Amino acid sequence: MSGGEILVVNAGSTSLKLNLVDEDERSEPIDAIESVDPKGVAAVAHRVVHGGPRFRDPVLVDATVQEQIFATEPLAPLHNEPCLAAIERTRTALPAVPEVAVFDTGFHATIPPEAAVYPVPRRWREQWGVHRYGFHGLSVAWSAERAPELLKGTGTDLRLVVCHLGGGSSVSAVRDGRSLDNTMGFSPLEGVPMATRSGSVDPGALIYLMRERGLDAEAVERALNFESGLKGLAGRPGDMLEIERAASTGDESAALAIEVFVHRTAAAVAAMAASAGGIDALVFTAGIGEGSAAVRERLCRRLGFLGVELDIERNARAEPDCEIATGGSSVRVLVVRAREDLVAARAARGLLSSRGP
């Protein structure tokens, strides 16, 4: 493909991020799509959270692709709907610029059957595609690339547990740069608690709420996606730092929210270490992972039995990208800035280059 910048559009569950990435991978955040000069843009790369059973690799967006992304919207209602709106917006602003969909589920396509398959009826699995897809793939792929660079001399065959902790949160097992497991599953609802999403809940509880308490599917879906997680526990909206401040003033609900988040995430790290066959490095990334020294400290304290030893002073002043373990820790601990923009831009360039001029 010819040179030019890639406009990366990342429509997440809690934000819309726009970045212009040049050929040297310098990335500049921008405020509005309409301010972009189309003459300098080679492609628009859209991060699409759920690719469903069809999409694994990046694809050029056309009407058929849009329809198929729309079809997966019930599986990721916080993500695919805003992504489709962003596709329409960029098409209006940059009508002659090719658009590329890059799927968060793609990186996790290497998850082996024993981790991906749910023990549910064959028809659910084979006809309806109910299995573990895994999410936050662009972020995890970047962390898997950065970890060996930060841990010089370790080689690439690292057993990593990557904690993408933010508005949406997941924990992944990665070995030799390949995903082996992820706490999210058929949808981005499974796994650890998130800003407003519940994470894993006993399906029996959901059946009870529908059968005995009269909640319909729409009410349950809304509660699990928008009224649960840290918000449901703390009784207030807000990010982790705000919840930490509330807890420091004696707010018991806020304190409980933090404890539940740490407890569930620590258990997930241990599970992912088992999936990876051990753990050489623990990686923190995304809003909470990068920004909350307190959460990192609490998590690492619980993970001491795995050989994790945190350097408290290095952790307190950590700025990505850096290491925060003690010299004697058998598990290295890293804080890595999430760079989904670079991964998406590379994918778009690669796809267009493969198609020739």
Q: Could you walk me through the main structural features you see in this protein, from its secondary elements to its overall organization?
A:
- The protein is α/β, with parallel strands linked by helices and 357 residues long.
- Helices cover 40% and strands 17% of the residues.
- It has two domains: 5-131 and 350-354, ATPase, nucleotide binding domain (Nucleotidyltransferase, domain 5, 2-Layer Sandwich); 137-335, Nucleotidyltransferase, domain 5.
- It has helices at residues 63-71, 80-93, 113-116, 122-126, 137-150, 203-212, 217-226, 229-234, 240-248, 252-276, 286-291, 293-302, 312-316, 340-354, and strands at residues 5-11, 16-21, 27-29, 41-48, 59-60, 99-103, 159-164, 170-175, 178-182, 281-285, 322-323, 332-335.
- The strands form two sheets. It has a six-stranded mixed beta sheet with strand order 3-2-1-4-6-5, sandwiched between helices.
- The mean pLDDT is 92.
